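Run SsuA/THI5-like domain-containing protein through structure prediction, thanks.
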Amino acid sequence: MKRRIWRALAASLVLVCAAALAGCGGGSGSATKVKVGEVTRSIFYAPQYVALEKGFFKEEGLDVELQTTPGGDKTMTALLSGAIDVALVGSETSIYVYQQGSEDPVINFGQVTQTDGTFLMARNAGAEFDWDQLKGSVFLGQRKGGMPQMAGEFTLKKNGIDPHADLELIQNIDFANIASAYASGTGEYVQLFEPQASIFEKEGRGKVVASFGVESGNLPYTVFMTKQSYINNNEATVQKFTNALYKAQQWVDANSPEDIADAIMPYFKDSDRDIVISSVKRYKEQGSFATDPIVDEAEWNNLLDVMEQAGELKERVAPDKIVNNSFAEKAKQAK
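Sure, done. The structure for SsuA/THI5-like domain-containing protein is below.
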């Protein structure tokens, strides 16, 4: 009699667990939610949108909720406050946090872009471009302390131009308003991301004459990062996230600008497909999209050089302080 009772109870437990697999650690309901904040919506971040649209995050059992948190300061505030779990932002922001002596440092774990993403546009471009043409001009740059501006100044100095003495540098305009300021007539030269550069070329407002990405070299320009405490408590989740990123990076590397554009169009619904293709093509041709999530030491040192020259670095920060490549290395091994 007792055996029959125990068998009945065991069978009931099996049925209950089968009916609630999500609660027992299985089934579609067990996806882990990860809140991601991107510093801006940009074609520059194509691998992220590919990972979302192609289902690479879902394959890893993750439910990624993406939000745009405009500006590096707002993105970092959201991360530090716990409003988001992971940030896609310039790696310089993690250095700024470290320099302030944070007890819970922000750790770079997955590189997305490996060059600057801006281009130099000339309002009245001649047949041939020479950097000396910028001397005495009005240059519409980017926000002080941000990677676009630091990479821009690094490039100007590399080409023999003192940005604070040889030209009129405007850098007090919010990132979101730079393109409209140029369109309204401000500046003879402007530093722009895609797709705005391609849009202005199509509209006849100017011509792209140089790439700051090419000129400033490889560096961990945009990286997925999170707090050390989040990694400590969610190591498996960070690994799955990095696995999905690597799948997306490999997909982007193997596919055409047209295919990539079609994959990311849901995130740029108001954009012209030809402009998106043109933007992806430019970034792909100059190697802006990282093909794996690893932040290597040479890139990191170049970043420090750029920040040091801009006067934004208190001390050189060794990569092992705020870079963790272990997740990227495991993702590559598992492929």
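The chain has two domains: 29-115+219-334, 118-216.
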